Amino acid sequence: MVSKTASIKPTITDMISLEFVSHAKISPSGDKIAYCIRNTNWKRDAYESECFIFDIEKNKTFQLTRYGKVNEIAWMNNESLAVLKVDPEMKENANQIFVFEDLIGEPIKITDHKNDIQNFKIFGEGIVFLSKAVEGVKKNERKNKFGSFIHFEQERSTSALYYVDYNKMKNYLAEKKKKNGNNSKIPIKPVIEITKLLKEPLSILSYIVSPQDDAIYLNCQSRDDRVYEQDSSNYQIRINPNEALNTYLQKQSSDKKETKNNNNKDVKDDDVSYLGALTKIAFPIVTSIVNISPDGKKLLIARRERDNFYFTQSDLWILDVDEWQSLLAKEEIIDKLVKITSSLDRTAMSTHWVKEGIFCSHVDGTKTAISHISESGKITTLDLGGNSTSLFNTFDISESGRLCLLIYNSSKMEELYISQNPLTLSELELIQITNIGKQVQNWQFGTVETIRWPSKDGAEIEGVLRKPEGFNPKKKYPLVFIIHGGPASFDAENILPRNDLYYYPGIQFSNLDMLVLKVNYRGSIGRGQAFLELNKDNLGIGDMWDIESAIDYLDQQGFVDTTKIGCMGWSQGGYISAFVGIHSKRFKAVSVGAGIADWYTYHISNDIPQFTTHYLSGSPFRNRELYEKTAPISNIKNAKTPTLIQHGEIDQRVPLSNAKELYRGLKEMNVPVELFIYPGMGHPIHKPKANRSVMYQNLNWFSHYLLGEDLNLFDEKKMEK
Predict the structure, then answer these.
(1) What pLDDT score was predicted for residue 422?
(2) Radius of gyration of the CA atoms of the chain, in A
(3) What pTM did the predictor assign?
(4) 433 and 483: one domain?
(5) How far is CA 15 from CA 503, 692, 715, in A?
(6) Which of 50, 93, 297, 535 is packed most tightly, with the most Cβ within 10 A?
(7) Helix 541-557 vs helix 572-583: angle between axes, to the nearest 10 degrees?
């Protein structure tokens, strides 16, 4: 809880250094929680995370990992935890899987895959993990003959799914260590590549394992490139992992006996039937399997019913696999799906299917919630006491029915909680586990609240307004807009949102006696399907209506200095900032982070060209009128607003060409403009020192143009504060 006697004004370095819970998992019995705390290592210039265990019965917390970055955690049983973390012994610092038995001592490293492991799940007597296959013979031959090149949007994926048996791997490691240095034969590694079953290389987007350990479901697309999102497919693999691995080991052992000088190489074998039975499910494109019932008989499906445009919400559906197994490969299987979210009109985010039923997190305005969904479609939202919950990674339910989740509100930063008793829909008694808020005791944040106003076309728009400490409604304050990306995203009524730790110094603006408004403009999630598509064919223009009408609304309240208005954002928020900076006369300064300058430039150079064809009704090669009308650069001849531009050097989502085009255009019109390019950075800025630079530049830029302070965008002394 924020102190009522707050007196400390945190610096940018203070903000970036804050620790917070990144993700959490509850043990099957519900008596322990494993959670990770993100921290900032300034010396290594990296964000890291350490894992902690909270024992509910003993009411004690202890630290499990001591260095590096833990990216994922999963309980193997009530006393053993698997973690995915960087292996410092590997040259490329690749992520590998380690297991802490009995939650003590040094972990056992159970993978040494040559490529980075992306994620994993507990399955059978071991673990399934997703990675890239080792570069094949054909690729090596191509490289040797022709050197390195990329066949644009035509390269085949090397995604592969593997299974490793935990106990067999422990025995393998012990045998390998025992025979190290002598001439004894090293045993065969107990790892199988499950996706050898696939008839062609596919990009595996995600996979779901059955709680009954008898099936794996794949969500795929034809290649890794995002342009192939709508060339998707779904598969069922019926597999007994123990039998498959034993057969593989027997085959390898037998083949090696018959093959001379092949002690340490796998023998090629086209017969992969031992891996199980593969069925391509005849789902429509862009259909995802997101969960499985506890008995393994039913699938939870996410699917857009109307169309597959970006602005169309997905619904949740149930398929009884046990009943309709014989129809999986036939197109009529779609008729067997049962929709269960007809009455929700929200996008379901994280989902869990436990014996108590289906639970999902979702956005509702500027709040977030968890709802129970019955198989008949009844929606019951859990009572979180007026609080909101984090949407990703931190909502989990144990086999025993206990819930753990992150909770925050307008006066308290995120803390980890667990339900006192097994989950019921009528009553939710929560116990606080962490005390992250002690870091910000006496910090000055101002106050946040949700406000609503009518836009130019009558649409109701919501936003989160941060007022400075000691706010006086009779005083005129400068106003800064911070615009989220997406557009299908949102800003929450949160005292300390995470984007204030990376890009925009909203807290620092507030402590400089400025108002900060985060607008959930048209196209944001949490307001239903109709609101999501209000910006179709109206990008920029409708967004400007929403932002300018906010200025009018706050001006009517009498506490805004309309001569001191700024706007900033990243990605789609950067585009909107560029648009209002060039098309509106109401802004004193803007900041454009990884923003679009010209929709045509964006369309021909980014990795998701379908974004523009969805939101602007077609290709610019056929009709460029809408592309020009909604582009910031289209009004460049009338540009007057000083503009700060920040961009990652290797950004593929919004390529750097957009930043350069905007910069060149503003320069030509003699508009004050600065461009900062961050080497090695893609769409997000993901290193602490670079984040500090981004935040400092924004703070200095608006302090200069709105408050009259000196402009020095790289003052080393100030940037360190």
Answers:
(1) 77
(2) 27
(3) 0.94
(4) no
(5) 11, 9, 18
(6) 535
(7) 70
Structure tokens at 440: 């910000």
User: Which pair of structure tokens corresponds to residue 578?
Assistant: 């560029």
Q: What pLDDT is recorded for position 721?
A: 57
| Cα 286 off chain centre by | 18
Give the CA angle between residues 204, 209, 212 to the nearest 5°: 160
Looking at the domain assignment, is residue 544 inside a domain? yes
162 located within any domain: no
Structure-token match 């400007």, residue found:
544
Show the DSSP H helices in 269-375 as ranges.
321-324
Amino acid residing at 279:
T
pLDDT of residue 152: 93
Lowest mean pLDDT among 179-183, 499-503, 638-642: 179-183
d(CA 233, CA 336) in angstroms, rounded, equals 18
What mean pLDDT value characterizes the chain? Answer: 92
Place of tokens 């829909």: 425
How do strand 560-570 and strand 477-483 relate by DSSP bridges?
Answer: parallel
Domain boundary among 104, 139, 174: 139
Count other C-beta atoms under 10 Å from residue 206's C-beta: 13
Task: Flag the least confident range among 33-37, 49-53, 187-191.
Answer: 187-191
Place of tokens 């001592």: 105
In a domain, 668, yes or no: yes
- Number of neighbouring beta carbons within 10 Å of residue 259: 11
Q: Nearest CA to 310 among 525, 574, 611?
A: 611
The domain that contains 676 carries what CATH number? 3.40.50.1820
Tokens of 132: 């890239």
What is the per-residue pLDDT for 261? Answer: 47
Query: Which tokens hold the place of 430?
Result: 């929560």
- Span 589-599, pLDDT tens digits: 999 999 999 99
Q: Is the CB of residue 651 less than 8 Å from the CB of residue 684? A: no
Residue with tokens 């990770």: 36
Q: Are 134 and 114 contacting, i.e. CB atoms less than 8 angstroms apart?
A: yes
What is the spatial distance between Cα 604 and Cα 404, in angstroms, rounded to a whole number? 44
CA dihedral 643, 649, 653, 658 (to 10 degrees): 40
| The pair of three-digit structure tokens given for residue 87, joined into one six-digit string | 């292996």
Structure tokens at 429: 């008694």
Contact 567, 483 (CB under 8 A): yes
Structurally, how many domains does the chain consist of? 3
- The helix (run of H) or strand (run of E) holding residue 668 is helix 657-668
Task: Report the pLDDT averaged over residues 609-620.
Answer: 96
pLDDT tens, residue by residue, 262-295: 444 444 557 899 999 999 999 999 999 999 999 9
Last residue of a domain, one of 406, 427, 443: 443
Amino acid present at 373: I
Q: Do 606 and 653 lie in a common domain? A: yes
**Which residue bears the tokens 């050898």?**
196
For residues 301 and 324, give the distance between their C-alpha atoms in angstroms, rounded to a whole number.
15
> Between vectors from CA 237 to CA 231 and to CA 243, what angle results, nearest 5°?
155
DSSP 473-533: TTS-EEEEEEE-SSSS------SS-GGGGTT--HHHHHHTT-EEEEEE-TT-SSS-HHHHT
* 126-156 pLDDT, tens digit each: 999 999 987 655 677 888 889 989 999 999 9
Beta carbons of 545 and 539 less than 8 angstroms apart? no
**Alpha carbon 538 to its chain's center:** 27
Burial of 492 (C-beta count, 10 Å sphere; 0-12/13-18/19+): buried
Q: pLDDT-derived band of residue 719, with 50, 70 and 90 as boundaries?
A: low
Confidence (pLDDT) at 142 = 83
Question: Mean pLDDT, to the nearest integer, of 697-718?
Answer: 89
Indicate the SS3 state at residue 244. helix
| C-alpha–C-alpha distance, residues 239 and 321, integer Å | 15
- Do 472 and 427 sit in the same domain of this protein? no
Phi, psi (5° rounding) for residue 247?
-65, -45
